Amino acid sequence: MEWRDEGVLLSMRTHGESAAIIEVFTAAHGRHSGVVRGGASRKVAPILQPGAQLAVEWRARLDDHIGTYTVEPLRSRAGVLGDRLALAGLNAVCALIHVALPEREPHAALWQATVGLLDALQSVPDWPADYLRWEMRLLEELGFGLDLTRCAVTGARDGLDFVSPRTGRAVSRAGAGDWADRLFPLPACLMGQGPADPRQMAEGLAITGHFLNRELAPVLGGRPLPEARARLIDLLARL
Amino acid sequence: MADAARDIEDLIELMSRLPGLGPRSARRAVLSLLKKRGPLMAPLAQAMAHVALTARDCATCGNIGTEDTCPICADPARATGEICVVEDVADLWAMERTAMFKGRYHVLGGTLSALDAVGPDELRIPQLVRRVAAEGVREVILALNATVDGQTTAHYIADALGGTGAKVTTLAQGVPIGGELDYLDDGTIGAALRARRSV
């Protein structure tokens, strides 16, 4: 078995004295682990940092073996190391992909979105809004995309102010009626409208967090979402 | 005779667990020790037995020593109001080799890691915060690795020390001595550019 692909490194841990086991989110092969011989060496270890974009070649005798990777760096994301918020964003992305996606299942659209977001961390000041949309894309990939196109009660396309915590569908003020206080407020930035101020970001992340928690409950086994996401939310709240 | 051979095999097996040694190199090392039983093996065994009994973590900084307080923490000349935070004892030794830092240390015992579920309480971060407040520390130097986990930990500690009034600094990042720009990755060159200074 052998293939070549491009991927974003999610994690690296040493294996024995000189090898490393890396987990890469690849374009065509999804989240995929493998051994890098000499991966813990002084020469290779600096390349194997979370968020780094790599050209990888995977080889194994059988498909269900862990296999070995040979890696070549394409893009380092070392630029985020000095920026605490961007670094928290990178950690949250890597941790969520690690927790949420099943192994060896391709998610090409999410891969594109992930690369775009990681690039934005270093260059786009308003990247937290991109991060929020990335979490929505992650929910879509998990099979639970939010439906914010029309009111679940009245069918109206305008005046959508809430999201149902049960169905993930938008609800208008008229449709919400007396139930409004049990629904999530729907921030405009979640629909791609207007800038994402800290309050809207918090509201948006509360919605995506609720559905991620619910959808990932069997995987998380009673544990909360990754600490890295909580740290990002904490830093965003302090802006 | 068979027992003696088994003892030596056991010794080889134990030696092979050391970093840098495999079964083959452990066999060579043990053979070398056996040939120098008097001048090397016996003193080595005595020294190892002694250190195994006396070695302990410094209650203040986490350094390894043979007393409850390590020689650096016990030295009043090193109470300069500066604490250098390192990930591991090996990093402390590396800093000491430079002979440039005259303050005291704090060994974290690792770095924060979201995927390995290593949080602040698994490290010695709460002890650091208490220590900075109690010892009236003026500057905390974060000498952590320039990796994602190392810098995540550095930012976390900087936040945690926010209310103490201590100045928090990190080691510079950029072109290593003897390094050539052509061989450096773009992130390192970018960091060096941001940290440029007048000459």
List keywords for this structure.
heterodimer, A: about 240 residues, alpha+beta, OB fold (Dihydrolipoamide Acetyltransferase, E2P), de novo design (two linked rop proteins), 2 domains, three-stranded antiparallel sheet, about 20% strand, elongated, B: about 200 residues, alpha/beta, Helicase, Ruva Protein, domain 3, Dna Topoisomerase Vi A Subunit, Chain: A, domain 2, four-stranded parallel sheet, two-stranded antiparallel ribbon, DNA recombination (chain A)
Assign the CATH class of the largest domain in chain B. Answer: Alpha Beta
Q: What does the main sheet of chain B amount to?
A: 4 strands, parallel
Oligomer: heterodimer
Tell me the overall shape of chain B: globular
Please report the number of helical segments of chain B: 8
Biggest interface, residues from each chain = A-B, 29 and 24 residues
| Element-by-element helix/strand order of chain A | EEEEEHHHEEHEHHH
What is the domain total for the residues of chain A? 2
Strand content of chain A: 15-25%
Number of DSSP strand runs of chain A:
8
GO biological process, one term (chain B): DNA repair
Protein name (chain B): Recombination protein RecR
InterPro entries (chain B): DNA_Rcmb_RecR, Rcmb_RecR, Rcmb_RecR_Znf, TOPRIM_dom, TOPRIM_RecR
Function (chain B): May play a role in DNA repair. It seems to be involved in an RecBC-independent recombinational process of DNA repair. It may act with RecF and RecO.
